[in-house]
Amino acid sequence: MFHADRNILRVLRRKALAKHAVRSEAENRIQAMISLAKSEVPVMPAELDPGAAHRMEEARKRIEDLEQAVMQVGYARRGVRSPAEAAASRHLSSVGEVA
Q1: Are residues 34 and 61 in the same domain?
Q2: C-alpha angle 83/86/90, rounded to 5°?
Q3: 10 and 25 housed in the same domain
Q4: Residues 96, 59 share a domain
Q5: What count of Cα atoms within 13 Å lies in the side-chain half-sphere of residue 31?
Q6: What number of CA atoms fall less than 13 Å from residue 48's CA on the CB side?
Q7: The model scores a pTM over 0.90
Q8: Which range marks the domain in which residue 69 is found?
């Protein structure tokens, strides 16, 4: 009986050691990956694609042009040509001179 218990303990100890070895090996790999990642120089997306900044600037300009066009359509619907004229029209209508 004592011999069987000792064998069971030996098997359990071996399983525990094997489990620990696998876990610590995985931990070492993870630590190695982290240290490799830390040693890499960070790269900005614009550095990966040098033309990206230029394309972004062009897109910003197109958006501004579209916003201007939308504003102009709004002014035309109200019968004015510029933001200043629209403001003057609002001011005059608020004081009752222009309906």
Answers
A1: no
A2: 140
A3: yes
A4: yes
A5: 6
A6: 5
A7: no
A8: 47-99
